[in-house]
Amino acid sequence: MATTRTPRRTRSKNGPRLVVRPIRVEDLDAIQALHERAFKGDFAPWSRANLENHISLFPEGQLCVELDGEVVATSSSLIVDIEALGWEHTYEDVCQGGFLRRHDPHGDYLYGIDIAVDPRHRGMKLSRRL
């Protein structure tokens, strides 16, 4: 049974407000723009269809960090059955075109497939919060 993750808010005295929470469909345009900045052409950002699929399959595994209301970091993961996947595998074996067809809610491994941090906010240890 999936659990719902409650957004966590932190604020240092008179500092920025950070919120770690699940990704929502209304975040997708901001997330795609963030991925463009974070990956700078090294990787194509997830398509809108990919991201909608991630949220549909495993919403608890799709997280973001907001800094004063702006999405500045994201992470995506899925659960896999490692015996079915095999120890020797590629990123594409896991992601399957970005549609996470290997997600198995009864699997035994949480598999992180990406973390993106806005270059303007690197060095703030945001990925640790995800």
Task: Describe the protein's architecture and organization.
This protein starts with 7 loop residues before the first strand and ends with a helix. The mean pLDDT is 89. It is built from five helices and five strands. It has helices at residues 28-39, 48-57, 82-85, 91-95, 126-129; strands at 8-11, 17-22, 62-67, 70-80, 109-117. Strands 1-2-3-4-5 form a five-stranded antiparallel β-sheet. By secondary structure, the chain is an alpha+beta fold.
Describe the structure concisely for a colleague.
The protein has one domain (17-118): Gcn5-related N-acetyltransferase (GNAT) (Aminopeptidase, 3-Layer(aba) Sandwich), CATH 3.40.630. The chain contains five helices and five strands, in the order E-E-H-H-E-E-H-H-E-H. The chain has helices spanning 28-39, 48-57, 82-85, 91-95, 126-129, and strands at 8-11, 17-22, 62-67, 70-80, 109-117.
